[in-house]
Design a protein that fits this description.
Length: 302
């Protein structure tokens, strides 16, 4: 069984164009100066949201082709950072519910809350857990808040009561957003105060690797996902990363995550998944931990 703990709905009002504008601007600056502006634009456009998947059909088709059984479907609450650029949070919640109902058993829906929404955001999150069967909380600190901010504690109390995890972004993102609160250490205080909540550092197996690994090694409720692994995989560095985690003895803390549909420029899911295990340092038992046992345990699913 393969569980992907990190995917997003592919729709422009959930992953807005302004988010990808920042990526495209930076990509242009990284390209060789001899390229024409048209060539720069063509390369940069590869890093935009290139697929429209209104019902989740495309995502499920790629999951089937890759052998992925189930995927966590994560919302991001961009509303405070990009006002007017995204759908209302309520409509995004409804969309996640609709996708899950259309594809029974394939998606695990995660809510999203910016803590600056106050009690309204907390109530909406509670309704998602109690009435709509959501199975976790996705946080996006680049929008301007620390994941250990006390204003999030009511949400963490709900997570503890309902035994659901928190996935929080770490590392860089679109240059249109702040990196201030994206270091793994930002989750440390919350993880200490809420030992009954599992905290997953999104991209933690890829960026800030040493600091993320340190938290995973010494905080029982901190885990790392592999979202964004396509970049080190393309550079031929992924096997070294897996060997690093194995050497530190934290393979039971690593969860497979793809960040679909963000990395489409690296190919479809089946293409990079075929290379992921490859000739790397993990044996069959350890690959089972990575793909199945670890995520099922952290998500508290049978």
């Amino acid at each position: 069984m393969i569980v992907d703990v990190h995917t997003h709905p592919a729709r422009a009002d959930a992953l807005p164009e302004v988010f990808f504008d920042g990526w495209a601007d930076n990509i242009r600056r990284l390209l060789p100066p001899e390229l024409t502006e048209r060539q720069r634009a063509r390369v940069a456009d590869r890093f935009r949201l290139s697929r429209d998947d209104p019902d989740g059909d495309l995502q499920v088709a790629e999951m089937d082709a890759a052998g992925i059984d189930v995927a966590c479907l994560l919302l991001i609450d961009f509303g405070m950072a990009f006002p007017g650029e995204v759908a209302t949070l309520e409509s995004l919640y409804a969309d996640i519910r609709r996708r899950s109902e259309r594809h029974p058993g394939r998606f695990l829906p995660f809510a999203a809350v910016d803590p600056r929404r106050g009690t309204h955001g907390v109530r909406l999150f509670e309704q998602a857990l109690v009435d709509w069967g959501f199975l976790g909380l996705k946080l996006y600190p680049p929008c301007g808040f620390s994941p250990s901010d006390p204003s999030l504690f009511p949400c963490y109390e709900l997570c503890a009561a309902h035994r659901v995890p928190v996935i929080t972004h770490t590392g860089p993102t679109s240059p249109r957003l702040s990196f201030r609160y994206t270091h793994p250490r930002e989750i440390d205080e919350a993880a200490r105060l809420f030992p009954g909540v599992n905290f997953i550092l999104a991209h933690g197996a890829v960026v800030h690797r040493d600091d993320a690994a340190l938290l995973a090694e010494y905080r029982p409720n901190v885990y790392l996902d592999t979202a964004g692994f396509q970049t080190p995989l393309g550079r031929g560095e992924w096997a070294t990363s897996l060997a690093y985690f194995k050497g530190r003895g934290i393979l039971r803390k690593i969860l497979f995550g793809s960040d679909w549909p963000i990395h489409y420029s690296y190919g479809q899911a089946g293409e990079w998944l075929a290379r992921l295990g490859g000739d790397g340092p993990l044996d069959e038992r350890e690959l089972r931990w990575f793909y199945q046992d670890n995520p099922l345990e952290v998500l508290r699913l049978s």
